[in-house]
């Protein structure tokens, strides 16, 4: 008798462990890992961050400090930049004969720092403002939501130019400007989510247990907002990078001789005809970075979308079906026109 | 008529908005010490006496509220004041600089909407096709590119090689439509593409997603079941409904378009309002700056009015009241 019980136990245990719940984050990571594009994007971002951190090491390795001009080896007879792989300059030099590779890596430090820090601050601000607007409603919501809309609709480059000139261009000022124009989009999303979450039963339960508004907002609602905020934040980083580059391009951001992709490209526009590399390499660095963040953000959003699971399942089914057809299967087997097209279930953004 | 009342109300609120923006700009820039402007104007070797004289000539020694009152008074009479440096009337400067900007905005917007929406619609109807995949990649690249990089790359890979081979139709700088349409298009083509590229990417993405969602709705199935042609189902039933969120996004993006205009004008040397406003800001040329700010505010207000009317025209559930 006792042996049978033992056997049953053995049978039941693995079944229980198989249906063990996974958290949203675990599920997301599992789905994200199967997405080749997102993984490549993540790899590119990690490499970019490493290169930015190691910029001084690269400078030491090449023997070219970022702001050191080499008028003899770094410029040709006409005083123009020298091309890639000339005189030990791997990516060539810029207009004053400085090492382009080293400067691009130093520019990466600025771009990534500005992108990540401003997005983080903007996310905190946006979450706080969106939460309050959505939770309290009424006059607080009206004022905050109108303010948010006003910031979103404002021609921000114009105001940014004005602010940068009034306060004098510096890294701090452009980070404040970028943050000021970034929180609104996040606040709008958070507000919308809060409006729907606060009507859920568990919020009512929390309230009936005597939880105050701040406890409910930050302990009951906030954890459910982190997923959409993470997606939006990942997509805001490249925008902040682009914004910094644009301001620096206009001469209102990072000031020379400090290297920034924006001010390098502004300077490069005077050397189109003689130094294509001066335009192409900083532009490529900028594009690769922003593209990687955009791809990763899209990937995370897909991975967090519960509809993606069905989409992947449908794709697997279709692939199987195609294989069967290729092996000479009977036409009409497998999902026919009645099978809902996965795209109609959920959009692929 | 409800629409007349609506328009009157919208225009009145629009005027209030423009006044608020102008006031904000006025005080923002007057917060700076006026002495820098005067020193700049008076030249390097100016004595303190000359500087005081310059300040009083410009009326900058009056109390700020008096200056503000003068400013408002002029504004009501359509007089925006005179440039500190050239003594030209701001109205004249605006008249000079507006044509390139207006050409850029109109052409760029048309290209942006036509390209964005048509690619989005084709991608949605042929989801997962080669076209869809290629356009999705192009959209992401477009989204990742700053406006000035697109402009610079276009100059590098289109304008310069063509020019080298003697094809000078495509050119930088500005040439008005009155001095030859062909030359006008040649000068504006690259700026239009540059301005449209980023925005078109956003709208391709948005319209594709919206249309895919709409095509899954039951009423589309009903329309198909009634035996309507696919074209009719798509354009009369699906696209119209899918476009409403796209149009409301348009209201938000109109303001951002101006930022792109500034950059495009500088990259291609079009010499419009955007380029001039950056110069004016750098020189502390207050009357000119405020003139530009007012023009920008009027543009945003008008564009938002058009967008809201469009919204009502597209979606029968939205009533203008």
Write up what this structure looks like.
The complex is a heterodimer of chains A (349) and B (321). With 349 residues, chain A is mainly alpha-helical. The C terminus of chain A is likely disordered. Chain B is mostly helical and 321 residues long. The termini of chain B are close together. The model of chain B has no long low-confidence stretch (mean pLDDT 82). At the A-B interface, helix 7, helix 10, helix 11, helix 12 and helix 14 of A face helix 1, helix 6, helix 7, helix 8 and helix 10 of B.
Summary, kept brief:
The complex is a heterodimer of chains A (349) and B (321). Chain A has 349 residues and is an all-alpha fold.
Which terms summarize this structure?
heterodimer; A: 349 residues; mainly alpha; disordered C terminus; B: 321 residues; 0% strand
Number of helices of chain B: 12
Taking pLDDT < 50 over at least 5 consecutive residues as the criterion, the unreliable ranges of chain A are: 326-349
Oligomeric nature of the chains:
heterodimer
Shape of chain A: globular
Strand content of chain B: under 5%
Termini separation of chain B: 10 Å
Fraction of helical residues of chain A: over 70%
* Percentage of β-strand residues of chain A: under 5%
Radius of gyration of chain A: 27 Å
Major beta-sheet overview of chain A: none
Most extensive chain contact? A-B, 43 and 50 residues
Structural class of chain B: mainly alpha
Q: Please summarize the sheet with the most strands of chain B.
A: none
Distance between the termini of chain A: 59 Å
What's the total number of strands of chain B?
A: 0
Summarize model confidence as the mean pLDDT of chain A.
78
């Amino acid at each position: 008798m006792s042996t049978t019980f033992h056997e049953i136990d053995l049978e039941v245990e693995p079944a229980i462990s198989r249906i063990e719940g996974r958290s949203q984050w675990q599920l997301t990571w599992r789905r994200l890992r199967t997405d080749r594009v997102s993984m490549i994007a993540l790899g590119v971002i990690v490499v970019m961050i490493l290169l930015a951190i190691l910029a001084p090491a690269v400078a030491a390795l090449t023997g070219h400090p970022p702001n050191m001009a080499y008028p003899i080896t770094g410029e040709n007879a006409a005083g123009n930049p020298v091309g890639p792989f000339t005189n030990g300059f791997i990516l060539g030099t810029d207009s004053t004969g400085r090492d382009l590779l080293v400067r691009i890596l130093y520019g990466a430090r600025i771009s990534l720092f500005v992108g990540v820090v401003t997005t983080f601050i903007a996310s905190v601000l946006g979450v706080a403002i969106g939460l309050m607007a959505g939770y309290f409603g009424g006059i607080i919501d009206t004022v905050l939501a109108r303010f948010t809309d006003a910031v979103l609709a404002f021609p921000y480059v114009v105001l940014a130019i004005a602010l940068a000139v009034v306060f004098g261009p510096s890294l701090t000022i452009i980070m404040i400007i970028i943050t000021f124009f970034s929180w609104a989009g996040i606040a709008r999303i958070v507000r919308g989510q809060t409006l729907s979450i606060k009507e859920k039963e568990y919020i009512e339960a929390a309230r009936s247990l005597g939880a105050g508004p701040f406890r409910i907002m930050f302990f009951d609602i906030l954890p459910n907002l982190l997923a959409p905020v993470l997606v939006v934040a990942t997509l805001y980083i490249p925008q902040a990078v682009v914004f910094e580059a644009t301001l620096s391009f206009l001469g209102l951001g990072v000031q020379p001789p400090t290297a920034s992709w924006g001010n390098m490209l502004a300077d490069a526009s005077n050397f189109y005809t003689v130094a294509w590399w001066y335009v192409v390499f900083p532009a490529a660095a900028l594009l690769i970075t922003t593209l990687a963040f955009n791809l990763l953000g899209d990937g995370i959003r897909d991975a967090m979308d519960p509809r993606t699971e069905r989409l992947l399942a449908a794709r697997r089914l279709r692939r199987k079906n195609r294989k069967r057809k290729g092996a000479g299967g009977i036409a009409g087997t497998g999902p026919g026109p009645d099978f809902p097209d996965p795209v109609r279930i959920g959009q692929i953004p | 008529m409800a629409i007349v009342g609506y328009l009157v109300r919208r225009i009145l609120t629009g005027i209030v908005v423009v006044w608020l923006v102008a006031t904000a700009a006025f005080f923002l820039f007057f917060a700076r010490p006026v002495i820098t402007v005067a020193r700049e104007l008076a030249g390097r070797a100016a004595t303190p006496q000359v500087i005081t004289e310059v300040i009083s000539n410009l009326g900058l020694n009056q109390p700020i509220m008096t200056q503000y009152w003068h400013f408002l008074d002029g504004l009501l009479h359509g007089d925006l004041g005179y440039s500190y440096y050239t003594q030209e009337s701001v109205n004249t400067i605006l008249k000079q600089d507006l044509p390139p900007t207006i050409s850029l905005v109109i052409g760029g917007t048309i290209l942006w909407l036509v390209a964005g929406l048509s690619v989005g619609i084709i991608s949605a109807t042929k989801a997962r096709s080669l076209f869809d995949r290629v356009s999705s990649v192009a959209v992401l690249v477009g989204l990742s590119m700053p406006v000035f990089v697109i402009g610079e790359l276009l100059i590098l890979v289109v304008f310069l090689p063509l020019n080298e081979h003697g094809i000078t139709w495509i050119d930088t700088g500005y040439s008005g439509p009155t001095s030859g349409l062909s030359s006008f298009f040649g000068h504006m083509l690259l700026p239009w593409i540059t301005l449209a590229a980023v925005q078109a990417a956003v709208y391709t993405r948005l319209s594709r997603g919206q249309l895919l969602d709409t095509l899954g709705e039951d009423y589309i199935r009903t329309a198909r079941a009634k035996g309507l042609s696919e074209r009719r189902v798509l354009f009369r039933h699906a696209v119209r409904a899918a476009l409403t969120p796209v149009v409301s996004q348009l209201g938000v993006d109109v303001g951002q378009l101006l930022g792109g205009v500034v950059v495009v004008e500088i990259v291609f040397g079009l010499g419009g309002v955007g380029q001039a406003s950056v110069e004016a800001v750098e020189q502390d040329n207050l009357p000119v700056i405020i003139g530009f700010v007012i023009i920008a505010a009027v543009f945003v207000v008008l564009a938002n009015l058009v967008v809201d009317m469009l919204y009502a025209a597209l979606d029968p559930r939205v009533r203008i009241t």
